[in-house]
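Recall that a protein's primary structure is simply its ordered list of amino acids. Everything else, from secondary elements to tertiary packing, is in principle encoded there. The following example makes that idea concrete.
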Amino acid sequence: MRNSVRYLRNNVVEIIEDLDPRQTLLDHLRLSKQAVGTKEGCNEGDCGACTVVLGRIRDGELHYEPVNACITLTGMVDGCEVITVEDLAEGETLHPVQQAMVDHHGSQCGFCTPGIVMSLFALYQDGARPVTRQAITDQLSGNLCRCTGYRPIIDAAQSACAAAPADRFARARAGKRQALLNLQDEMDVFVGDEQRFFAAPASVDALARLYLQHPDATLVAGATDVGLWITKQLRDLKKIIWLGRVAKLDRLTLAEDGVSMGATVTHARALPALAAIDPDLGEMMRRFGSTQVRASGTVGGNIANGSPIGDLAPALIALGARLYLRRGEEGRALLLEDFFIGYGKQDRQPGEFVVGLAVVKPGADEAFRCYKISKRFDEDISAVMGAFKFTLAGGRIASARVAFGGMAATPRRGLHTEEALAGIELDDSSNWGRALDALAVDYQPISDMRASADYRNEVARALLMKALVEIAGAESSETRLIGRRERADAA
């Protein structure tokens, strides 16, 4: 067992042996390392002023990703390279991204600029070439700028990222990769004592033993939710178990009929796999938080926190996803929809944790749609999230799965709505009314800061109608196409 946290910065291995489990990376950098270029803005992972870049080994290769230092716990950088805005320039020579921001007048007050530079630095290093405007705006979705506006910042990004990376980080990439590989070991990390600790087990078996021994500990994967418990709710979390070092818990397996993924697969890694299941899932994930949030937050964490307004759960429930859990030596599986019991409550025993999940791709006779409604397009929590899967028989809905987020205390299926949908003809909209009315039986949402109950009810009806219209149109087009093919074959 190792009693320290280790990370790489500026080619020096930093070792932390005395660690407050609640300490954020932002506080560590500013207070212990005097790296004050990393700013504290919202302190909730929203504004991006605190953005730093982590170099991480994944599948044997080095990847650079931006994260929010304000909600990333210090212990979570074990085995990583930490890069801050102070680390970019070579002596008096600015980094190409920094120089482009100067040349294109991309900064005014300057408070948000370090975070913007770090997000663009990650794009400079790992962005696909040619870098598109869409890729730039997606990269900047987690960085707010209230002074300059984004046009000169986007211009700077297009200029700096036009060619392949050629800075000192690119030149030293092979050496950095080896240095990080040298930091990796198969040892469990435990810093603290039995009453207050930061732990990072290295295997699922070690995690199961530790969590069974300390069921009152807080499990942390990406900390995009737990981080706010610390910074906003000021909770004194005495025992933290980080899942980021657990071997094989980040495994993602693609198959012809679907995908299975471990609990610590990040949203960034899950995005292309889910998009391959259905384009609507890919678009929903593109709007999931920000680049920084998707690089840290995990699929398992999003499910395990049981949020009634989580984006992912309703979509996966509609697809019939199956969840896998473990407690001690025992494991079990259940449908995702059965995991959510009540507000903030899940079917999870003390010492039990999410191991992973499996999602089956819709079949040839199935149609899937999901829609996110929020006040902002990017980086916003849903007011309503609707997901629909219809099994079709000709132009008729043989069966349906309907799930919503933001409409109840948990992500929930609409069983009465599903019953009303079964058997209706898609080419006869006059018989859709009973299904639309059934939504009011399944869901009685509340009013809160994001939306009123009346708004949510109206939006839910509109989303179901949208799914019916789109699927009816697609089914009609396919029927016409088949008819043309049949006529051509007969001729």
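The mean pLDDT is 94. The two ends are 75 Å apart (CA to CA).
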